[in-house]
Amino acid sequence: MEIEIATIGGYEEVGRQMTAVRAGDDVVIFDMGLNLSKVLIHDNVETERMHSLDLIDMGAIPDDRVMSELEGDVKAIVPTHGHLDHIGAISKLAHRYDAPIVASPFTIELVKGQIEGEEKFGVDNELVKMSGGESMEIGNGLELEFVHVTHSIIDAINPVLHTPEGAIVYGLDKRLDHNPVLEDPIDMQRFREIGREGEGVLAYIEDTTNAQKKGRTPSESVARTHLKDALQSMEDYDGGIVATTFSSHISRVSSLVEFAKEIGRQPILLGRSMEHYSGAAERMGYVDFPDDLGMFGHRKSVDRAFKRIMNEGKDRFLPVVTGHQGEPRAMLTRMARGETPYELESGDKVVFSARVIPEPTNVGQRYQAEKLLGMQGARIYDEIHVSGHLNQEGHYQMLQALNPKHVIPAHQEMEGYAPYVNLAESEGYKVGRDLHITRNGNRIQLVE
Ligand SMILES: [Zn+2]
């Protein structure tokens, strides 16, 4: 059976991930993501109303025109998890394919939100839920399996396409977490089985975001302990404490809520995306928040919540807000500019349970937000966080477990591939032979 892989997006940047695998006459698409930084750099761009081709020209969504060169029918579109760089282009591209969207239940819920917010295209692909540990027959003699992985969002999976020529393992995004906070540990046993059974692994597409980092990515439970320690150290502070983190990081939000209670404060989630992600996770039973947890997204209800906090006393609350990257329109930035009823005073604490995404726009915005907070006397607690991506030892362990014939590094800029190349070559792979450094829009023929 002919096997071909089209590396469509996310091979020259972190963002707008999209890959297609053709096995015989059948094609499966993995991820359809957005490169948010290409959108944010323009002021006031409303992507909801924009046409796909304009977004492709901006570099915001994958250029899927290479799909016309693949001789096969698309059988499924498979987003791996709910981050925007993996699902954010579904509302712009999926309607061009007569295929269902197959994903884990939480990811499907977030995909639904994307489709509902779309104003230009009607996307009516069937939405099919499949959880980690499950599989389905697909196309002609193929099987699609989801392996449960751990990442900075719940319900992440790595899809595996089983073909007569071996398995194609699509490895974006994950860290090897054996002590996660809200869900099961990563299913390493299944990866080891896949590496040994049948024809073995024909190709492994890898998330190389952190390939330059030595050692092992710590578990989410480490971030949780760090967070607990930081908040306990503020136990006797009688002023304002504000925290911010990734809205989609339900495990982290849940730890913040829990430790706020422990130090005698009422947690409250503020900001549109806070309400969106945490609301979905709670509705679907992934997290059990306290009954009295307030979640407010709309500007007016947020401002009402802030007024209530100022009236009843800042020492009784712990607002968890959007704005960990200093995004100009996010809640924390508005607070820093004095645009909300919440008044920061000298000595108030601001907890960043996040790291700055190393991208010039983020770095600049975050610098500005921190300066503004500092001018009001806020004390900054930074980087109470662990990454959602593998470091070098995780990459090594995955190569050991899967023993793939071909390796295709992804989720990286061109200059960022060198550390992964060094690691893979020390394991016997060779660039140009079985280690494929590629670009967006290329096709790699693995079996002719
Ligand atoms: Zn991700």
UniProtKB/TrEMBL annotation:
EC number: 3.1.-.-
Cofactor binding notes: Binds 2 Zn(2+) ions per subunit. It is not clear if Zn(2+) or Mg(2+) is physiologically important.
Name recorded for this polypeptide: Ribonuclease J
Enzyme class, spelled out: hydrolase
Entry similarity comment: Belongs to the metallo-beta-lactamase superfamily. RNA-metabolizing metallo-beta-lactamase-like family. Archaeal RNase J subfamily.
SUPFAM superfamilies: Metallo-hydrolase/oxidoreductase (SSF56281)
Annotated NCBIfam families: MG423
